[in-house]
Amino acid sequence: MADGENMKNSRWLTAGSIGAVICILIIIFSFYSYERKLDENLKDYAYSKLDETVKDQAFVIKSKIRDEKRILINIADYLAKGGSETNRQQLMGSMEKGSNFVAIGYSDRNGIIKEPGGKQTDISKREYYKKAIKGEETIQYIESSIEKKEPEIIIAVPVKKGSEIKGVVAGKFGTDEVEKALKTEDFGGKGYFCLCDTKGNVIATTKRKSCIFHNAENIFQKYEKARITGGDTLDRVKEKIAAKKSGYIEFSYKNRSYYTRYVPKTPGWALFYTAPTDVIEENMAFMKKGTVELVIGLIIAMAVLFGSLFYEQTRTTRRYKHINHEMNNINESLDIAFSQTPRMILDYNRKTDCAKVFKNYMDEKAYPIGHIFEDFSESEGFFYGEDKEIHKRVIKRTEQDERAEDGYIQEYVRYTFDGGKTFIWCYVTGQRTLDEQGNIEGALFVLEDVNEDKEELKHIEKKAETDLLTGLLNKKATEQRVAELTGSKKIEGFLFMIDIDDFKNINDEKGHTIGDIMLEKTADAIRRSFREEDIKGRVGGDEFVVFMPGTTLRDAAEDRAKKISEELKKIREDVPGTDITCSIGIARCPKDGRTFRELYGAADKAMYHVKGQGKNGYSFTERKE
Length: 625
Prior knowledge:
Largest sheet: 6 strands, antiparallel
Shape: globular
Oligomer: single chain
Number of helices: 17
Strand content: 15-25%
Number of strands: 23
Structural class: alpha+beta
Distance between the termini: 128 Å
């Protein structure tokens, strides 16, 4: 009897052991398949991140060129109204200093640019002039400039008075301005950009020796030396760029694999972004590590559960099925996480002015699928109040107009997806929909969350306006802010020119490190002495400018001048052995001038008056009536 029971237990033990081995083999195989699928998903995710990077940079370059072109258009509109040669030269000189152009010139219909010194330059043979004189706004990369024989980028616009073309305004800047706009922080700073024309001639590239396109003259010739392993062939790349289509290349160069994404977004150019394949995959490796550890933990747990088969076969089977179900749920969750992006799709009907939620990956609780926005063009509460006109423009563009002949719509608008608690930036794209007769019925809108990209762009813009040492505004930003208030907004106030006395002696005797500390402390003193809304900037080595908008009382300005002098005395406590004072010149707007240069010049004279009276004081300037 006992032998029969032992034999029965032995059979159960053998069956349980075989079942456990089979189950473990199944788990190992599943883990292998799961890991391979995870690798593919992570690779796709990393490559999609690279695609977003190159598209964003293409947008930045396009925006930079558009902004510079807008300056030339404003000049052209002014010149079309007439004016003397002196006024023309003064205008172009002023606009040139406030932009990234190294030179701006005007040519008549003969293609001759007259410079202030009497020098004349013939641009009639240049391609950009030929297009502009026919009425086109054009941009051209030139490998060899007329003067310095160096590469440059030319933007040209026609000067039109009605239907008559009177001449051409052209501005040029070096390729280094484009290179500054190319961000290379992604993928650990190991990726790099290359901007070229449709023939592959390199316009600008990342200035780093590790960049394989460093000092390359033609990107296509560089690819000919590499071994293309995937994506588009070189001939196919040339065809796509000519047709203004995007694509990618996988290639091997000097025993290392690379991935390139190219986007022909800029006029007549293509932007290439290249990163080593191993760097792209390493960028997401930490996600794989955590997931693999999770699966290994599950395998260990499964092995422990299989051990109980010798005692509780039925219960163990149920547990195995439960855990297997959980693993399937994890797989499905990962698939969803990798396949979806934060966006909402709306089906808009022009006749009823209603938009129906077709898909919502944002927050279905607030706006579930099927939710209808009535009076969509006026649906306040869904869009941010300040973006009302932009939202209306999106709706307006569902109609036939010159700006949307192909029916494609794109704008940036802030919307809410949680019932109005928060508003986020969305990139709105849309395509007009037609009825059976071909009439415009409405549009299909896609609202994509680009809030992080917008915030990052704001951070970049703020950084570009900031003096790195003191944290105040830099010279260009200070001048622009003051000019905006005193010019178009016609706001009154006082402009202070603050110059540290004998700062050169501080640098010579104490060293530049102490000198930098003194500048930082002076900036802090200025912050403490003026209001938060006052414009505060560093415009030179030891020169600071402050503009107090809305202040008209002389006593208030005097109080600020005395306050800054008192605050500077406190620096002795922080930096022993130093005695810092300043000379302050104060100009009043609009009495002493309306433009920044007029106010700056008046305050500068007043400041030098203080210098001549022994320094360490302040003085107002008076303009003769």
